[in-house]
Amino acid sequence: MSGVELFPLVLIAALVFTVPGAILGWVSGLRLPWAAAGSVPLSFGVFGLGAWGLGQLDVRYTWGTFLLFWLAVVVLAMLWHGGFLLLRRRRPKDPESDEPLPKNRQGGVLDPAWLLPAAGVLTGMWLLIDRGLRFFRDVPGELENIVQGWDVHWHASMVRWFMDEGIADPTRQGELRNIETGDGMYYPSAWHVGAGLVGEAANLSPIAAMNLTSIVLPGMLLPLSVAMIAWKMVGRGGLTAQIAAGIGGIAVFASPVLMWIGYYVGAWPYLAAVSAAGVVIALFMHVPYRPVAAFAAMMSFLGLVQLHPSAVTIVVLALALWWLLYLVWAPSRPAETVRGKVAVRLQDVGWLAVAGGLGVALLLPQLLSGSSAGEEVSSFTAFEDVTREESWTKAIEMQTRHTDMFVDLNQTPLLWLAGIGAVALIVWRRNLWAPVFWFLSVAMTANALMLFGQPWGDWLNIIGNLHYATAHRLVMPVALVTFAAAGVGLAVLIRLISLAPLKMNDTWTRVSVALSVVLGIGAGWGTAVWATRDTVMDGAEWAINAPRQDDRMVSEADIRAFDWLAEQPGAYEGIIMGEPADGHGWMYAYNGLPSMMRHYLWPNVDRASATDLLYWHPDLLGVGNHGDPDQINNVDKAAAEMDVNFFFVSPWSFWAFQEPRFEMIDGLWTTRGVTPVYRDRNVAIFAVNQAFTDSELEQMRAPGNSPEELPPLLLDAAGDPVFHRPSKPDQGGEGALETPGNPALIPAPVEIPATRP
């Protein structure tokens, strides 16, 4: 697929991700540039909230119902803005004179302060999206390619479920995962809704829509986040902030630990949420100076949490430090009297509390539903064999998991520039919140590599555990701040070279500004060249392509078998059973085949459930009971209860410690209750006899229908094939099969690791 062919798809995705949020932000009171900058998390705020609301009302989530829900939110935003307009004469008063404060006209669409940041951000977006999608040309199927990884299987199943069934309620994901019980389960779904809406708008399959979203969404958000963090670090919209934002938005391409490793490990909704953090932080920091922005800040917060709740700690920690170390000392408006100083500080924190508090209140039903998932997340650890000094070094240099694939990558110039930026911010702008935030993020990363002594280790883990206590995730905010600080450092050097501190006269100032702009544009070009050098590009290509080019889980033989199975009788009318860890469950995301397993993770069932019986004892189908081959046993009952009509076998398992299920791999070839109907290399499909007629089974086994020859069937005296189906009820007595529910004990199941949302 060429770049020309991909451009319309990227454009559609970009419009889906931005237009709803931009319009919402604008009508709620944001000026147009701010509405555009905050559009993506705002859109996902509506995507996610709509998923929950429509799901609770049992209304199918489609483009039509989404637009109705979005219009309702837009009306609320207009009412919010209208309330401020009606109270214009009662705008916030100057605490000293009790007169209305003058309107701040900066930040509008005609303000040239947006030009350099916008140029840098758009360049960064283009680099990330163009290079990221370009790598797809080298993998089988291009956008239709299946990732040979762990978490992405679940994301693909969620996108398929949304596109097919119109359900995306994060509190109803148990209906998708737990086929037998339907037990409740929380999983954030805004990412999957965005992908699904793109798929419907662009007429893409769920897998192609997911792959497109996996590149376009973080590709848009990362440059925006770094640029807005750099802007807010400087603290005012002068030329230094503009240059810093533009350069930071380009430089982020070169960070291994953000886009590229975040992509490789399959943490796509998590990566998107972290990528949105800087935008959400900036919108909240805008609120004290422009309180009408509280509605947009709240909706952006909803978007981030509904992408992935873990990232909320980044926003909360950054805002708490900003308020404590900056806003309390330099409030949004000056005041002279004690009464005025107290009043303005209360107003500042009050508006922040309104924006955050309303967001939490709207999310509370979802968050309460997902409290058990939080316990699951906090159970992870990923310590490494490092010394204490090495843990600090790795955290500061952002050398965590998989960065060794970026061979010879030297980030020393970046760290020096970030150091210059940090010194300038502390000395010049009295900015302490950003360095302290960076230090705490580094400490949490080091703690994930090697636990600190108590109580520091446990204290840092309060936040770290919400990020699975893994260094390759906790290092992401370190990278966001480092690249933003490097942009500030380079901008400060440019302004010094331009002799900007010398305020001689207006002509000198204009010459200095012009020289700074020229040098800033040149630095932006140089940053793009530096960011896309071979040491980064080789690692980036590996990150995108490595999990796509082998057949660890889904091979070409699996794809052929999926396609064959989709054409067989009853394929979509029952359930298809198999080993959850062998990758066969991708058939659901691939062509909608109703697999029992929508993820490698085991569903929530008890030991005597039909799901467990079919997993541990498929070799007992049709063998009879109590010594009578015609009596129905527990496994036969389980197959009938779950309406299982096929078994799909495709070894081996994802993780090496997952023991092969030989009761399927070998046992299904000999048990009498199923019939082998397909074989291709290590892939085999078995039809459950009781689900089909003799003629249907013979049709599936017709000569040439299976790529490889199938074993012969047993024949009766007349030479006709025998398809055994137990027909007698379980009559009890001696010789019961050793299955759950009977006296004999069996080994406990092998534990399968929990998923990471």
**Quick one: biggest sheet?**
4 strands, mixed
Number of domains: 2
Shape assignment:
elongated
Low-confidence stretches: 94-102, 743-757
Keywords: Membrane, Transmembrane, Transmembrane helix
Region (Disordered): 700-757
InterPro entries: DUF6541
Transmembrane segments: 6-27, 34-55, 67-87, 108-129, 207-231, 243-261, 267-284, 311-329, 349-368, 413-429, 436-454, 474-496, 508-531
Which key terms come to mind for this protein?
29 helices, 4 strands, elongated, 757 residues, Rossmann fold, mainly alpha, disordered C terminus, four-stranded mixed β-sheet
Explained architecture:
The protein folds into two domains: 3-86 and 114-542, no CATH class; 556-700, Rossmann fold, CATH 3.40.50. Helices cover 56% and strands 3% of the residues. The protein has helices at 3-27, 32-37, 39-56, 63-86, 115-134, 151-165, 174-177, 190-202, 206-234, 239-251, 256-264, 268-286, 294-307, 312-327, 338-369, 371-377, 388-397, 412-428, 433-449, 456-464, 471-497, 506-531, 534-545, 556-566, 586-591, 610-616, 634-642, 662-665, 694-700; strands spanning 575-578, 644-649, 674-680, 683-688. It has a four-stranded mixed sheet. Helix 1 runs parallel beside helix 4 and helix 17 (388-397) crosses helix 19. The longest helix is centred in the middle third of the chain and has 32 residues, at 338-369. The model is unreliable at 94-102 and 743-757 (pLDDT under 50).
